[in-house]
Each structure stands twice: as C-alpha cells, then as structure tokens.
C-alpha cells in the first residue's frame, strides 16, 4: 500500500473512469481512482472493485496475457486489459470501460462467451485425430508451406478481441467470425486432421469465408499480432480453387 | 452453396471487369475532350462489331457483379428480410441487363 | 469514425463499398441516357445538359469513383488470390490507389473544361 501511495503521490492526479454497469440494459457509472505511474486497465478495474464497487463483475485470470479472459472494450477499442497500460490509452485522464462488443452482456464487464465458442465449433474447429498412443508422433515437416500456414495462426488463445472488432460479425448474425475461421484455416492445413473436408465445407459454407470483406479490424486489433484476414483469404483461395480444380 | 457461388461469381466478374474498366476509363478521358456530341459518339460506335462485343460483354459482366455487391450492402446495412433482399438484387440485375443491352443496341445498331 | 474502425484497411473497405454503391445507383441512368441515342436529337439535348458545370463536376466524381473502385478492387483480388508475402495486407497500396484515382480525375477535368 505504501508503494501505491507513493505512486499516487508521484503522479498526483486522478483518473475518471466510466464503467458499464448492468447487462444489455444498463448505464455508465463514473469512478475516480488515483492515477499511478505504472498501471494497467485491469489494475484500474480491480481497484474500482476493491475500493468503490465490490459488486462489480469482470473476468480475469492470469494478468499476464496468456489466458485471454480479460478482454474488454477500452475507449471504444477491444483490448486485453491486463496488457494495456493506462498511459497508452487514457485521453485527458479519462477511461471508458465496457464489455466486449458483439457478445451478449451478462453483467457489468462480463459478457457471455458461449456464442463465440459455438461459432468456433460450427466452423469445424474441433481437431479430429486418427493416431493412438501406440503410434509414433506424426512426422510433420516444419518447413512445409502447409505447416507454416498453420503455425501462423496457431497462437490464438480465444480472447474474442477480433470477434468484437469485426463489423461483419455485428452486421451478419450468421457470420462465423475471424477467430473461428482462422481456427478452420489452421486445421485444413494440419495434415493430421482427419476431418479436413468437413472443416473446409463449413468454412466455405453460409456465414463462412465468403462473408468477409477484408476490413482488417481483426488483424489491426489482435493482441497476439495474428492475421485472421490472411487465414480467411487462404480459405477464399481454397474455395475458388475447389470450384474449378477440385479439392487438392 | 449459393453464398459460395455468388462469392466466386463476384471475383470472376471482377477479374473480367478490371481490363474492361481500364479501357472504358481511357475512352472516357479521350472522348470528353472538346465536348460530347451524339454525332461524335455514334460515328465511333455505329456498326462497329468490336465495340458491340466490348460493351455487350461489359454490360453482362456488370449486371452480375453489381447486384451481388448491392445484395451484401442491403443484407448488412438494412433490416430487410433475406428473401426480399434476394429478389431486389435479382430485379436490379435484370434491370441493368435490360437497359444496358438496350443502350449498347442504341449506340452500335 | 468509431475508434475500432479507424485504420487504413477499414477506410479502404469503406471507400470500396461506397464507391461501388454510388456506381450501382448511377448505372441504370447511364444506360437510359445512352439509350437516347436511338433518337440522335434526344441524345444531343441530353449532352447539352451534361455540358453544364455542375453536371460536369458530378461526372468527374463518377470517374474518380470508378477508378477508386477499380484500384481498391485490384488490391482485394491480389489479397484473395495470391499468398501474402510476409503477412503483408498490401496496406501500402491504399494511398497510391487513391492518388491514382485522383490523377485520372485530374486528366478528366483538364479534358472536360
């Protein structure tokens, strides 16, 4: 606490934080918290819960950008709150924190992630392997183009930042979204995946890759620096090729 | 399957439109010099099999390309029902094809 | 512009969509006007109208929009048909595409007036 107190003394000042309270129907509540020299948006939300609003609902786990559970909308942009320093996003000492866009709001800053994972499954995102524990591990050439394409998207941790950033998700209820389609792209490039054809059919079907308009908001906002747009473009290429050359 | 077909058709027509639009833009820039008259336009186009084929193809391809885009916009930016949007897009395509081919006939016939 | 949309690729999407929409609305009228050539005098009356300054300006707009839709569309075709070298979304093509469309508009204006 003495650290915190000296930090506050260092910087003086206060942050004005507007936080969404309620579910789909609700309103912003404003809290004043000390501005510190070194604080993340998640620190601020935690401070509000500890000292101002013990009933504030929000989600977090690891606090270090590994688990993907603390994503929220900060000043209009979807972000991992644990990896977002206040100094980077506050405008004139003001922050607005809301739940992620494009998902149902449960309470305060927590949204219902079920539709996001449902789409993940609908895109054929479940790995189907054929090997048993008696088999040797598959020998996959790490330099092969397919493996490299899969590698480029494999670090996704399902934080739903891209899903919240995408306007097509907001405009078209059927659209599977950037995360689910990037997952499909990694699977169709994974030579161990037995349901490749099924995954590809789903990713090319209604609400699939053809609905993407290359707005690029997913790749602009992905905290890991992945490019779902690139994976979806790959699926579009496969879709076009399959129409004329047959599936390879 | 329909979404996939429309997606592929829109890209294929886009590939065809790229050179057509380039030539058309070039022609516009040349033709507009010194003002437009009916006689000048018709002297270039009337009886020309080449221009008839060029603009005939242009009209057909654009009558496929534009309604697919309009369909996306109506779906995403209006609250119209899916069925209504499909009929509107189809009607728009037929309209473009009809008045487009009539225009080609008017200037080359 | 809402903050999550304020980046180059989104502006390119918006330019491509709005130019396409404007062109689609214009096309039926363009075709109807050319259909007037079935009677040359009617076309000449129409062309005299298009010689007005305001109409010329609108035509300039259409030429720029057509060129813009072409260049932004070419970027999308390359993105969708070719593998991305080094994850490059060709963001560097957007501003030159816009500039090229304006140059074509400039050439139109020089010829038209």
Please provide a brief summary of the model.
The complex is a heterotrimer of chains A (248), B (109) and C (113). Chain A is an alpha+beta fold and 248 residues long.
Topology, please?
The complex is a heterotrimer of chains A (248), B (109) and C (113).
Chain A: H1 2-11, E1 14-22, E2 26-34, H2 41-51, E3 71-74, E4 77-80, H3 86-89, E5 94-98, E6 105-107, E7 110-111, H4 114-122, H5 145-153, H6 161-165, H7 167-171, H8 178-188, H9 196-204, H10 217-221, H11 228-245
Parallel strand pairs in A: 1-5
Antiparallel strand pairs in A: 1-2, 3-4, 3-5, 6-7
Helix pairs in contact in A: 4-8, 5-8, 8-9, 8-11
Chain B: H1 2-31, H2 38-45, H3 49-77, H4 82-108
Helix pairs in contact in B: 1-3, 3-4
Chain C: H1 8-35, H2 40-50, H3 53-81, H4 94-112
Helix pairs in contact in C: 1-3, 3-4
Describe it for me?
The complex is a heterotrimer of chains A (248), B (109) and C (113). Chain A folds into two domains: 2-111, Ubiquitin-like (UB roll) (Roll); 114-245, Orthogonal Bundle (Fumarate Reductase Iron-sulfur Protein, Chain B, domain 2). Chain A contains eleven helices and seven strands. Chain A has helices at residues 2-11, 41-51, 86-89, 114-122, 145-153, 161-165, 167-171, 178-188, 196-204, 217-221, 228-245; strands at 14-22, 26-34, 71-74, 77-80, 94-98, 105-107, 110-111. In chain A, the strands form two sheets. In chain A, strands 2-1-5-3-4 form a five-stranded mixed beta sheet. The longest helix of chain A has 18 residues, at 228-245. The radius of gyration of chain A is 21 Å and the shape is elongated. Chain A starts with a helix and ends with a helix. The model of chain A is unreliable at 5-10 (pLDDT under 50). Chain B contains four helices and no strands. Chain B is elongated, with a radius of gyration of 16 Å. The termini of chain B are far apart. Chain C has 113 residues and is mostly helical. Chain C has one domain: 3 helical TM bundles of succinate and fumarate reductases. The longest helix of chain C has 29 residues, at 53-81. The B-C interface holds B 11, 14-15, 17-18, 21-22, 24-25, 28-30, 32-33, 35-39, 41-42, 59, 62, 66-67, 69-70, 73, 92, 95-96, 99-100, 102-107, 109 and C 17, 20-21, 23-24, 27-28, 30-38, 40-41, 43-44, 47, 50-51, 59, 63, 66-67, 70, 73-74, 76-77, 80-81, 104, 107-108, 111-112.
